[in-house]
Amino acid sequence: MPEPVWQLWLAPLDVRCRDGSTLVLTAPDDIRVRVERRFGRLLNACATSQLGRGAAVRLISRSDPEGLTAPDPTTTPSAEPAAAAAAAPRTRTAVVNPRFTFDQFVIGDSNRLAHAAALAVAEMPGLAYNPLFICGPPGLGKTHLLHSIADYVQTYGDGTTVRYTTVEDFTNHFLGALHGHDMDAFKAAYRDADVLLVDDVQFLQSKARTEQEFFHTFNALHSAGAQLVLTSDRLPRDMGLLEERLRERFEAGLVTDVHPPDYDTRLTILRKRVQQDGLANVDTAALDLIARRVDTNIRALEGALIRVVAFGSLTSQAVTAELAYEVLDGLYPDLRPRTRSVREIQERTCEAFGVSIDDLLSTNRAAPVAWPRQVAMYLARELTDATLPAIGRAFGGRNHTTVLHAYRRTAERIAADPDAFDAVRRLTAELKGER
Fold first, then answer.
1. Strands 14-19 and 22-27
2. I need a surface site. Which of 6, 167, 190, 346 has the fewest CB within 10 A?
3. Strands of the 195-199 sheet, one edge to the other
4. pTM (2 d.p.)
5. How far apart are CA 400 and CA 404, in angstroms?
6. For residues 352 and 348, what is the distance between their CA atoms, to the nearest angstrom?
7. Bridge partners of 22?
8. 3-state secondary structure of 388
């Protein structure tokens, strides 16, 4: 765990004795309850790994002379935590959308790292990546991941408190507290949480007083070892109107991003939505057509499904590919992409980067050739229905792992390099926009 967290919370603990399979530890009175709540599962897991199955840890006060009469916190709640829970503000519990859980989240190449990081911080808050910063365009699952973390922590966190908010709600709450002279309650609502989830932090820009209060809230929580998870539609470095000290803190943990889902992920999302909502008479071919036609974001994808299903219900028609085509053709005429071949993508990429087709397909690994080749493989994966082996064959007989590696390297580079992002974005727009 991070050194400051260790020094603040666990270094002060001492071993008192071993009572059968229970290891009795002493803790200062001012931190015992919080250590018990935040790190109890971790301490028990460590005891089990070192002492064997059935081992457990019990925390007692240093002033307890024997340490064997204190109630076991895993079975009998002490008066102190009970009193603290009774006095805690109701806002410390996150309001979770029951549809947004890890079980309902569809994992693909576009969001795999973000999902893994979110699950890690949900399982071990404050110990994995702190802060965790998830960025990406709207409608790609960032809020879903925040709610998934809240759901997991509330279900398995053994009393760990979690708070979800948007920057808009945080701002309104802060201004209301200022006008109502109730800043103590406001601070307690956020700074007493063990996990704070904040959506759309890009809206902190140009809000000087809110930004300052958020900075102090961030510092207080981080210093106390609480977990922070933030989402934004852009990278921290692209928030030019945000104070540098806050941008630096956003970048101090793990920064990960989400991208528009590929065809396979889009189709899985639609199938899962059909299953979740119990929709009947939905033809697989209709889902296939929607997945191919709507590729902007998940909200647009699910919105298209809802419209097609609603149209079928209102007109008493089964949801077939023909019906989906009719509805999408009328509502989303701009979503009819022209199918591209791998060869067309190769030729356009060569023109954009000034390399020849022969070089692109060669074994030359020099940077001026390797980067355009990776971009072309990335676009072939994104803009065609060709399989990875088929794309590899079109690039000089390469295997599918080479194509997948190129895809991932390109995704990583465009996430970190604005110039690379702009180049790939322009090339994608040209390939999609040609008639």
1. antiparallel
2. 6
3. 162-166, 195-199, 227-232, 132-135, 254-257
4. 0.58
5. 6
6. 6
7. 19, 56
8. helix
Question: What is the pLDDT tens value at each position of the chain, 435 positions in all?
Answer: 666 667 777 888 888 888 778 888 988 887 787 787 777 777 887 887 788 777 888 888 877 765 544 444 443 343 343 333 333 333 345 567 788 899 889 998 889 999 999 999 998 888 878 899 999 888 899 999 999 999 999 888 777 889 999 999 999 999 999 888 888 889 988 988 999 999 999 989 888 899 999 999 999 999 888 999 999 988 888 887 888 899 999 998 999 999 888 888 899 999 988 888 888 778 888 898 888 888 878 888 888 898 888 888 888 888 888 888 888 876 655 444 456 789 999 999 999 999 999 999 998 889 899 999 999 999 998 888 788 888 999 999 998 889 999 998 998 888 888 888 888 888 988 887 643
What are the structure tokens assigned to 170, written together? 């945080």
Give the count of alpha carbons within 13 A of 93, CB side only: 10
- Structural domains of the chain in order of their starting residue, each with its CATH number: 3-87 (3.30.300.180), 112-257 (3.40.50.300), 263-335 (1.10.8.60), 342-433 (1.10.1750.10)
* Tokens standing for residue 410: 């390109």
- Contact between residue 140 and residue 298 where contact means Cβ atoms under 8 Å apart: yes
Q: Angle at which helices 208-223 and 183-191 pack, to 10 degrees?
A: 50
Here the tokens at position 16 are 């008192």
Give residue for tokens 């949480």: 193
